[in-house]
Write a sequence for this structure.
């Protein structure tokens, strides 16, 4: 049974990105985006309600995760420029198999980020 999950680690502080806001969107063929859900990450840097999409909600297509990076670091007391180097990380990805497990982790600091398809 397929599902979609995420996990965010704050590499600047060496901890999960607790409190970061994340939005999941479904992308249409015309490029428009429809918000499916918005969450705040728990103490482990994950959605405390389980997967972002469960087996019933999984669908083949184009998707987007929007991570509110600068707001998270500012809330932690990090002094960022008025125009931060990384404000929002918008990650577009595809789900080719609705029965598959898609894990989209983000490793982030105020000046760099990395992602991959996790397991």
């Amino acid at each position: 049974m397929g599902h979609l999950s995420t996990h965010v680690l704050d590499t600047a502080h060496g901890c999960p990105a607790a409190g970061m806001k994340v939005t999941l969107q479904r992308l249409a063929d015309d490029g428009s985006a429809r918000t499916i859900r918005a969450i705040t990450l728990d103490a482990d840097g994950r959605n405390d309600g389980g997967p972002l999409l469960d087996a019933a909600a999984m669908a083949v297509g184009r998707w987007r995760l929007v991570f509110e990076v600068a707001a998270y670091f500012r809330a932690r007391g990090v002094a960022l420029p008025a125009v931060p180097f990384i404000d929002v990380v918008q990650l577009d990805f595809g789900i080719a198999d609705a029965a598959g497990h898609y894990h989209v982790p983000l490793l982030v600091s105020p000046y760099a980020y990395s992602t991959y398809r996790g397991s």
Summary: The chain has one domain: 3-111. The beta strands are 3-10, 15-16, 21-27, 33-40, 61-68, 88-95, 101-109, 112-115.
